[in-house]
Amino acid sequence: MKAGVFLYPWDVVGDPDAAARIADLGVRQVTLASAYHSTRALTPRHPAHRVVTAEHAAVLYPPDPDRWAGRALAPYRQSWTPGDDPYGEAAEALAAAGLEVHSWVVLAHSSRLGAEHPDTSVVNAYGDRYPWAPCIARPAVRDYLVDLAAEAAARPGAHGTELESCGWYGFAHLHAHDKVAGVGLGDAAQYLMSLCFCAVCREGYGEEGVDPEALSASVRRALEPAWSGGGSPESGRDGIAKLLGPEQANATLAWRGRVARTVQEAAVAAVRAATPPGFQVLLHADPVPYRTGANVGVEPDHVLAAADGVVLPCTGSDAVREAVLGPFAGRGGVRAANFGVVTGMGGSPRTLERDAAHAASLGADQLRLYHAGLASGPDLEAVAAALSRLG
Q1: What 8-state DSSP symbol labels residue 326?
Q2: DSSP 181
Q3: Is the dihedral of CA 43, 46, 47, 49 positive or negative?
């Protein structure tokens, strides 16, 4: 089973031993960030630093000035890793070590974009803006994301790309100093808190036959028990229908599903137009269509008709893997099982051999391991041992 790891350019740039160390794990592929959101990351083995603070979402290569000239929405350049093209420098070193490099492109997730262009953000039923979550229904946002996908994916020497957040982002963010866990919001309430009520989405709900003002009031009314201390544990599509009523629930699901499919199709098509035949395009995905975040909700038949496959979150119990891999069984395409291998971040590298075998029995044909740059030495040793036995 082909295995790959995620990596940041700053894990490699300035560390002459990094590429060989990654190759020695027994992986064949590196998924290397070319466009990424803000983060604070440890670099436990780098000879020059221990912490990198990526202050805002940015591209890690020099963007094409002709593509972005005169446009209000354009990618931001990074300043925290030396050099004009840290992605290119890292990719060259990894390829020289015999590793196949794929680009890693984060799309609908940028707090700086929302801060500088507030009209691009998701607006919830209370009127609060989510600056980290650009509304993908807005034409200017969609055009920006599609062009970003094409440019950030088609980096020199890349054999493929993995598109993260290629769809709706929502309430859940893992924001710096997040303080939103005081009220228990179940899966359905999270969906309600992720619904957008910008002008474009209001019009879209109207196209689906519901009044946007009435829908907004229904969302606020449905969430009131949570704010009053009763919680909101409902989950699944039935839970959404219970909170909103079937008509309003179906309208939101139809509108958001239509928008997400359009964005995914356009992004994949743009990448294909910018890359040679055989360039692999995968989406980080969740088979529950209304889910938001890094692993966007998709419809399995649709996403596999558009892209070459999916990367699915498989860290956790057997039930977690069955839930995410099951809907893709027998449908073809790449099904890469993504496992966290950083113990301190909830990963389980010491059960990787067993967990990967279980994923394979459910139809996974590749592995992705998050994250070789963040993992401790013992975690990487456990990964190398597991991969040597998996073959």
Answers
A1: G
A2: -
A3: negative
Q: How far apart are CA 379 and CA 213, in angstroms?
A: 51
SS3 of 271, please?
Answer: helix
Going by C-alpha positions, the residue among 261, 304, 284, 380 that lies closest to residue 31 is 284
Question: Would the CA dihedral through 367, 370, 371, 376 be positive or negative?
Answer: negative
- Give the pLDDT score at 234: 84
Q: Using CB atoms within 10 A of its CB, is residue 50 exposed (0-12), middle (13-18) or buried (19+)?
A: exposed
Residues 6+ apart with CB under 8 A from 74: 63, 68, 144
Residues pairing with 205 in the sheet: none
User: What are the residues facing 40 on neighbouring strands?
Assistant: 53
Residues 6+ apart with CB under 8 A from 175: 111, 132
Token pair 């590298």 is found at 349
d(CA 335, CA 5): 15
Contacts of 333 (CB under 8 A, 6+ apart): 304, 307, 308, 309, 310
Q: Choose among 70, 110, 88, 79: nearest CA to 32.
A: 88
Phi, then psi, of 71 in degrees rounded to 5: -100, 135
The answer to pTM > 0.90 is yes
Q: pLDDT tens digits, residue range 358-374?
A: 999 999 999 999 999 99
Euclidean distance between CA atoms 112 and 385, whole angstroms: 41
Number of helices followed by number of strands (H, E) in the chain: 14, 14
pLDDT (tens digit, 9 = 90+) per residue, 68-117? 999 999 999 999 999 999 999 999 999 999 999 999 999 999 999 999 99
Under a CB-based contact definition with an 8 Å cutoff, are residues 187 and 193 in contact? Answer: no
Residue 354 neighbours by CB distance under 10 Å: 12
